[in-house]
Amino acid sequence: MQLLTAQCPYCGRDVETTIAHTAEPIICPKCEKPFEMEIPTAEVTSVREVEADETQKIIATEPEERTLFRVHPVVFRARPLGSMVVLMVTVAAIYGLWRSLAGDAPSREPELLGSTTLASIDWLLWISVAGLIAVAGILFYWFTLSYSTTLTITDSRTIYKQGILSRDASEVQHDDVRNIQLDQSLFQRLMRIGQIGISSSGQDDLEIVASRISSPGLIVETIRQNQRS
User: Fold this and answer.
1) Within a domain: residue 114?
2) For residue 217, what are the domain limits?
3) Are 155 and 142 members of one domain?
4) Vertex 149 angle, CA 145 and 151, to 5°
5) How many domains does the chain have?
6) 44-65 burial string, b = 16+ CB within 10 Å, else e?
7) How much is the pLDDT for 160?
8) Is the pTM of this model over 0.70?
9) Where does residue 213 rank: exposed (0-12), middle (13-18), buried (19+ CB within 10 A)?
10) Last residue of a domain, one of 128, 146, 164
11) CA 7 to CA 26: how far, in whole Å?
C-alpha cells in the first residue's frame, strides 16, 4: 500500500495517508485540525497521432488493482473434533499395519493349501489399510473444499469464489459496502477464525458469506481502510 506524506499547514507535522483518503479531509494527529491533501494536476502540452498498437507501450494509465489478501478457509482449526478423530485413526492404523507386517498379529489357525477361511485372513492388516484409506479420503475432501473456495481482497473490491467444475463468484466494491458482519464464537476467537458477511447498498441480504476464514478482523479492517467514502 502506497503512503502519501504531507505537512500539516497548522503545526507543520508530517502526516501520512493513502490515495483513497485524499478525497476527504485529513485530521492531523498532533493538532487534531482538519486539512485537505491535493494531488498535483498537469496541463496538456501537445497532441500527436500514434498507431493503435503503440498506445499500450507509451500511454499513462490508472494504477493497476492490487491484491491485498487471498485466503482459503482453514482446514484443521475449523474442525478440532474431526481433526482429533482423524489423528487417532491414523495413529491406530499405522500401529496396526506395523504389527501386522512385523508378524506380531494374533496367531491364526493353520490354513489348508488352496483354501481361504475367515480365520486365515489377516484382519488387522485389512482394517489398518481401510482406516488409512478412509483418512486419506477425508483429508482429500477437506483440502479440496478449502482450495476450491477463495476470498480475495483487493484495494477496490472483495471477491468470493466457490466450486471447481461449477464456479460461483460474488464481488462487492469497497465503496458500495453498507454492512460488514463478523461472527466469532469464543472458541473461534481463540483459534483466530470466523465468518465474514458483506452486503452492499440497496441489498437486504448478505452478498458474500465466507466461513472458516483466518484472521477475519484484519480482513474487515483492510476493507474499511480501502473505502473511499
Assistant:
1) no
2) 67-71+149-225
3) no
4) 150
5) 3
6) eeeeeeeeeeeeeeeeeeeeee
7) 95
8) no
9) buried
10) 146
11) 11
111 domain residue, yes or no: no
Under-50 pLDDT residues of the chain: 58-59, 107-108, 110-118, 120
The pLDDT assigned to 110 comes to 47
pLDDT per position as a tens digit, 199-218:
987 777 899 999 999 999 99
Please give the Cα distance from 210 to 198 (Å, whole number): 9
140 occurs within a structural domain? yes
Residues 199, 166: one domain?
yes
Give me 32's grid cell: 487534531
User: What per-residue confidence (pLDDT) applies to 85?
Assistant: 96
pLDDT at res. 159? 94
Question: Given this model, what pLDDT does residue 26 score?
Answer: 74
